[in-house]
């Protein structure tokens, strides 16, 4: 029996990969043979000589000699490394594919079959649009004077008609939903009448702008009310020490009747509907609390958010109008800071206000994606006379 390695002529250890070799050459062949492209070509035109103690001048010539003496990769056994075994074990232990992933439908809407004969509700909102027309026609309820248009709009925020009545009703159904919608839209309508340039627009454009702004206006206005409530109920130093996502206020869930809205339950619709049961100290609320805007600053934030959003949504003539409105109100804000607040450097507060507005717009875009899914899967079973009010 041959007891000399056929590759390096050192003492052999046995037959490895088809040839009598030592352990070193066997390990070299097992490591290098699967990827010979990683080895540099021989610098001496494949004429390297074997030195003492099995040393080669280059790996290329050593590999070629391995092949020459009969070593082959056919006996290689792959996927036996320890880390490969661990990966395969982890793969086998993974959680099986869920039903919603398998079917391609959200698990919120696959609990019952899609009944084609489910009754659809209809809500006639013509009375609400007629009221908005009347508000625009009558203008502010009382004559107001202010140094500029932005301050006049701020007076509209604190006017009594914009303060919603608190209700102790523990039930929430179609009637309460329509009343809430009416309150929000009329509040925006009355606030817009305090902007003289808006009052000069044709009635059709006024309604178009109202349709595109009432939802984002309500988001920021509710955020402002919540931040003021928190500042009133909590010490400022305590708020600073609180961590994000801390529960600040809890209130009971109302008894909700949504049979007029969808065939699914409240639990199944939580992905699509915002049903608040508590107030948490999220980053957006913290930013609003820290900013603590004045009525003039809040009026600018509301107008900038509304006109910027409606301009991007409708484009064309409304975009030109909204840009003009933003320029006018930005000049008024500059006058407010310089002449009344004696602040020539107000860039930091402007940056804070714009960050809040941008975050609200991001939330609106996320909600738009959810509503697109709801329309695709026919989650809601209600029709309205003016669907443009609910297009984001």
TrEMBL record:
Residues 2-78 form the Nuclear receptor domain. InterPro entries: C.elegans_Orphan_NR, HNF4-like_DBD, NHR-like_dom_sf, Nucl_hrmn_rcpt_lig-bd, Znf_hrmn_rcpt, Znf_NHR/GATA. GO terms for cellular component: nucleus. The keyword Metal-binding applies. Signal peptide: none annotated. GO terms for molecular function: DNA-binding transcription factor activity; RNA polymerase II cis-regulatory region sequence-specific DNA binding; zinc ion binding. It holds the Pfam family Hormone_recep. Keywords: DNA-binding, Metal-binding, Nucleus, Receptor, Transcription, Transcription regulation, Zinc, Zinc-finger. SMART domains: HOLI, ZnF_C4. Residues 135-392 form the NR LBD domain. It is found in: Nucleus. The keyword Transcription applies. PANTHER family: NUCLEAR HORMONE RECEPTOR FAMILY (PTHR45680), NUCLEAR HORMONE RECEPTOR FAMILY-RELATED (PTHR45680:SF12). Belongs to the nuclear hormone receptor family. This is Nuclear Hormone Receptor family. It comes from Caenorhabditis briggsae.
